[in-house]
TrEMBL record:
It comes from Paenibacillus curdlanolyticus YK9. This is Germination protein, Ger(X)C family. One of its GO terms (cellular component) is membrane. It is a lipid-anchor. The keyword Cytoplasm does not apply.
Length: 364
């Protein structure tokens, strides 16, 4: 029995050595940037390969290698890189696909669909828009002492954990499989000073970038109306004559589809937020009535902002909240009778934000 166990251990060790030799040949692409080359239909593709310098047991110094190629599609671009660079590009560990604003306006998902055909496809990579020069950004080695790939991905990771932005993975767009997925919003990067920052979300209609964006606050609010949970999201505003700062503890969103024999009349979106105040020492003499008044005033302020978000979405005919999907799912006969794309921009969509203050003790 001992001999059998020893033989199995030796086999496992031998297999590990063979795999290690193969891994040394792979170039693990961390970030892929995609644009058009000039005015042509050729893709201008940028690859950021992550590696360790001075590697040793337990770590090393993270480093990025920047590669660039053109091609009629991603497969063609990768093939050209493999011919002029020792090693083999692998997208097994790719964490971010970054597309230019120009590329985003021309059905980008049609080009990205090819990634699902790679043997080890990056379906869990983020997808985002960069409104700047991709080659200049991705060729940089570091930003604020971080590699460019770690910096970009960390920005998305951190804001996603806070619940401020939507989480867009390649898996969602490549395997969605329905007509409704063609309207969406992608997180947007932009140049800032000598760095780069997240700047709201880019709105897409029928798979094409509309050129219209939501700012940071609008993206946060749209994300909550889309069903995101409360994760200490910060709202700052003015209720009546008082400034307020609140942190969301819990969020619940409900849709009410109102229709009659004549068709779809209205969609109400109710967003209930349980919040805590950031400020302390507010002077309120009649606590019960004053608290209710303050909740109503804050709710009215955020409702007005939510109405602005809805107005922007309807103006560019982008059904980011997938309201059409809600109508089709719960009222299929009603949905079949209407032309959603034509009705959506003119439809009455009424958001209402209701606030419940949890730490009312600070009002005493």
């Amino acid at each position: 029995m001992k001999r059998i166990i020893a033989a199995l251990i030796i086999c496992l060790l031998l297999t590990g050595c063979w795999d290690q030799l193969q891994l040394k040949k792979l170039l693990f692409v961390d970030v892929v940037g995609i644009d058009y080359e000039g005015d042509s239909n050729q893709l201008d593709v940028h690859y950021v390969v992550s590696s360790l310098r001075n590697a040793h047991q337990g770590g090393g110094d993270p480093s990025n290698l920047y590669l660039h190629s053109t091609g009629s599609n991603l497969y063609d671009s990768v093939a050209k890189i493999n011919k002029k660079m020792p090693g083999v590009l692998s997208v097994l560990e790719t964490r971010l696909y970054l597309i230019s604003a120009k590329f985003a306006k021309d059905q980008p998902l049609n080009h990205l669909n090819v990634t699902s055909q790679f043997l080890s496809n990056p379906l869990y990579a983020y997808l985002a828009v960069y409104d700047g020069d991709l080659s200049e950004l991705l060729a940089r080695k570091k930003i604020r002492e971080q590699t460019i790939s770690n910096y970009l991905v960390s920005l998305i990771d951190d804001e996603k954990k806070r619940g401020n932005i939507p989480s867009q993975k390649m898996l969602h767009y490549l395997l969605g499989g329905t007509e409704f997925i063609n309207d969406f919003a992608l997180n947007r990067f932009e140049p800032h000073e000598n760095s780069v920052r997240l700047a709201g979300a880019a709105l897409f209609r029928d798979g094409k970038y509309t050129g219209v964006n939501l700012n940071d606050d609008e993206t946060l609010l749209a994300n909550l109306m889309d069903g995101a949970p409360g994760k200490m999201q910060l709202f700052i505003g003015k209720a009546a004559a008082n400034n307020y700062s609140i942190l969301v503890q819990k969020a619940r969103r409900d849709y009410d589809i109102i229709h009659d024999a004549n068709g779809l009349r209205e969609i109400d979106i109710t967003l209930k937020l349980e919040v805590k105040f950031v400020e302390e020492g507010l002077e309120i003499h009649n606590r019960a009535s004053q608290l209710a008044k303050l909740e109503a005033e804050i709710g009215a302020d955020i409702t007005a902002k939510a109405s602005g978000v809805i107005a922007t979405l309807q103006k560019v005919n982008c059904d980011y909240l997938q309201l059409g999907h809600e109508v089709a799912a719960f009222h299929p006969k009603l949905y079949q009778r209407i032309s959603w794309r034509e009705q959506y921009p003119k439809l009455k969509i009424k958001p209402v934000v209701k606030i419940k203050i949890l730490n009312s003790g600070i009002l005493e």
